Amino acid sequence: MTKKQNIKPTDSELEILQILWQKGPATVKSVNEILSEKKDVGYTTTLKLMQIMYEKGLVHRNEKDRSHIYTAVIEENKIQKALVEKLLETAFSGSAAKLVMQALGNSKPTKEELDKIRELLNNIERGDQ
User: Fold this and answer.
1) Residue 6: pLDDT band with limits 50, 70, 90
2) Residue 23 and residue 48: Cα distance in Å, rounded?
């Protein structure tokens, strides 16, 4: 496993990664503006977090221009997989069924989500996964 695969982002780092995954490469200023829509966060706090994320290898920083452009290094699905695996082991004793039942019990899935779940289950039963 590489160093990047072992990294578990903090909640604040995950918020920034979510923005970078949705928006693409961005400056600290633009990330901070989006974060500020949801909570009270100062520019210097966002800057410091993104600098730490750069040091940890979570983001890449393009330093060509005066305003550095940050890009997520780790793919969204890899982080999601790592977080689900940790949650599965720590909260559900490794039982995927318990995790799925809890998740479905806590929210009402849309018809489209249910169709995707059925398709996934059918693929698993056929051995396509």
Assistant:
1) low
2) 20
d(CA 49, CA 55): 10
Rounded to whole angstroms, the Cα distance separating 49 from 57 reads: 12
- Count CB neighbours of 57 within 10 A: 14
- Judged against a pLDDT cut of 90, whether residue 107 lies above it is answered with no
What distance separates the 2 farthest-apart alpha carbons in the chain?
Answer: 54
Residue 95 CA: distances (Å) to CA of 45, 98, 111, 118, 120: 38, 5, 25, 19, 17
